Amino acid sequence: MLLLIVSACSSGEPAATLGTSTDSSRAGVWSPPPGTTWQWQLTGEIDTSYDVEMYDVDLFDTPIETIVLLQKKERIVICYLSAGSFEDWRADSGRFPPDVIGESLDAWPGERWLDIHEIEAIAPVLESRLDLAVAKGCDGVEPDNVDGHLSSTGFDISGGDQLAFNRWLADEAHARGLSIGLKNDLSQVGDLVDWFDWILVEGCVEFDECSGVEPFLAAGKAAFGAEYSLSPVVACPVAREAGISMIFKDLDLGAATTICP
Questions:
Q1: Residue 111 contacts residue 153 (beta carbons within 8 Å)
Q2: pLDDT tens column, 237-251
Q3: Which domains does the chain have, with CATH numbers?
Q4: Which residue of 17, 153, 199, 236 lies most exposed, with the fewest beta carbons within 10 A?
Q5: β-strands 54-58, 245-248: how paired?
Q6: Pick from 192, 83, 61, 213: nearest CA to 138
Q7: Chain-centre distance of CA 139, in angstroms?
Q8: Rounded to whole angstroms, how far apart are CA atoms 225 and 244?
Q9: CA 83 → CA 165, 168, 169, distances in Å?
Q10: Which residues pair with 141 in a beta bridge?
Q11: Mind spelling out the 3-state secondary structure of the chain?
């Protein structure tokens, strides 16, 4: 069934790219306020019992029936996809040209950086993924690995290249009526806050980076956070002070979650 959806979504002309991030381009797009509650589960059968406003789940692995069930429970459903890396286990991985596949991501077997400087070369795959998000009824997307300019990717990716790619992603999502969050990339928050509807940061308490989300909060947009190593006793006061909706997860991002009160 998934392959049929991918095939259907990849046919025809892609949605037009919007050159700027304007209010009119985001009419009806979910833009959560600070303090929005959430659950993040990318592996295993989705536990739909959490009393939160937003669920973040895997685009490929989450059945349509689960998305429908969550929305019947009045949950916003955000669908995770990797935009800046090649994952060899994905059904569409063979569509990436070999010359845009770079160095491996540390500690993530089967995952390698993409040359996001070559937007035209990888756009057809990413556009199909956004189309799949629409077809499955996702309310928005969480694109991962959108900060490759800070890593050893095997390509000469500049900060300007990253800004252009991230803005292109946001425009493509908004053109399809999808909400989109900025994943990490705190070094470019000031240049991207107008393009994205919310932000998700990992380990900001552990690495003393939580102040980086302030432009989003000042714009009335939610900041979601996840910690992997620190305890709630240590991290929750910092998260509350910073205005971040913080949860605590294992690295496998299964169902188990602790939420700051």
A1: no
A2: 999 999 999 999 999
A3: 36-259 (3.20.20.70)
A4: 17
A5: unpaired
A6: 61
A7: 12
A8: 6
A9: 10, 11, 8
A10: 79, 180
A11: CHHHHHHHHCCCCCCCCCCCCCCHHHCCCCCCCCCCCEEEECCCCCCCCCCCCEEEEECCCCCHHHHHHHHHCCCEEEEEEECCEEECCCCCHHHCCHHHEEEECCCCCCEEEECCCCHHHHHHHHHHHHHHHHHCCCCEEEEECCCHHHCCCCCCCCHHHHHHHHHHHHHHHHHCCCEEEEECCHHHHHHHCCCCCEEEEECCCCCCCHHHHHHHHHCCCCEEEEECCCCHHHHHHHHHHHCCEEEECCCCCCCCCEECC
Q: What is the pTM of this model?
A: 0.90
pLDDT-derived band at 25 (thresholds 50, 70, 90) equals low
Q: Write down the residue that tokens 């900041």 correspond to.
A: 223
- For 254, the token pair is 């299964």
Two tokens, residue 154: 């095997």
Measuring CA to CA, how many Å separate 32 from each of 38, 196, 202, 256?
Answer: 11, 11, 18, 23
What token pair was written down for 111? 């995952």
Instruction: Write the burial class of residue 199 (CB in 10 Å: 0-12 exposed, 13-18 middle, 19+ buried).
Output: buried
The residue assigned the tokens 């991207």 is 192
Cβ–Cβ < 8 Å for 39, 247: yes
Give the model confidence (pLDDT) of 58-109 as tens digits. Answer: 999 999 999 999 999 999 999 999 999 999 999 999 999 999 999 999 878 8
